[in-house]
Amino acid sequence: MLEAAILRARAPRHLLFLCVQNSARSQLAEGVARFLAPPGVTVSSAGSSPAFVRPQAIQVLEEIGIDASGHRSKSIDEIDAGSVEAVVTLCAEEVCPVFLGNALRLHWALPDPARAAGDEAARLDAFRAVRDELFRRLKLVFG
Fold first, then answer.
1. What one-character DSSP code corresponds to residue 126?
2. Looking at 3-17, 86-100, 105-119, which range is the least confident one?
3. Are 97 and 103 in contact (CB under 8 A)?
4. 58 CB contacts (<8 Å, ≥6 apart)?
5. Do residues 73 and 23 touch, judged by C-beta distance below 8 A?
6. Would you name the residues annotated as active-site residues?
7. pLDDT (0 to 100) of residue 13
C-alpha cells in the first residue's frame, strides 16, 4: 500500500488519526499504532465532533492485547498542530475533518463500524474488520 510506504519513509514523530466523532476508526487506529510504534513516536487521535469511545472499539482492541480503556474522545482543537508530522483521515461515508497544521496528509477511507447493521455480533465483526485492516496497514508503517 502506497500510503503506508510513504508514512514508513517519512517516519513521523507525531502521527494523528482523524475522523468525525473520534469514537471508532480513529480510536482503533490510535490503539493499534501505539501498540506497533517504536519508542519516541507520539500517536494521537481526534475528531471534528467528538462524542465518546465506542465500547466495541475498546473490546476488539482488548481481544488482541491492546488496552484502550483509558482512551477518550478528543476534539481536533486539543491537538498541538505544530507537533503533528503526519495526519491520516479515516472517513468514508461522511465529510472528513480538515487539519490546518503543516503536516503530511493521507486518507484511508474505511467504513464506519459504528454504522454497521445487524445484531451485536455483526457489529463487532465490523469493528474487527476495521481493526484488522488498520493493523495490516500500520504493520507496514512500523513493522
1. H
2. 86-100
3. no
4. 27, 68, 69, 71
5. yes
6. 19, 91, 96
7. 96
- Helices 120-142, 2-10: crossing angle, 10 deg rounding: 50
The string of DSSP letters for 51-88 reads ----HHHHHHHHTTT---TT----BGGGS-GGG--EEE
CB of 86 closer than 8 Å to CB of 108: no
pLDDT band for position 1 (50/70/90)?
confident
The pLDDT assigned to 24 comes to 97
Chain Cα centroid distance, residue 122: 21
37 C-beta neighbours (distance < 10 Å), count = 17
116 DSSP assignment: -
Alpha carbon distance 20, 36 (integer Å): 24
For residue 37, pLDDT over 90 is answered with yes
Q: What is the pLDDT, as a whole number, of residue 94?
A: 72
Is-contact 76 46, C-beta < 8 A? yes
The mean pLDDT value for 67-83 works out to 94
Range list of H helices, 91-119: none
Listed residue (7, 6, 14, 12) closest to 79, CA to CA: 14
Per the structure block, which three cell numbers stand in for 89? 483521515
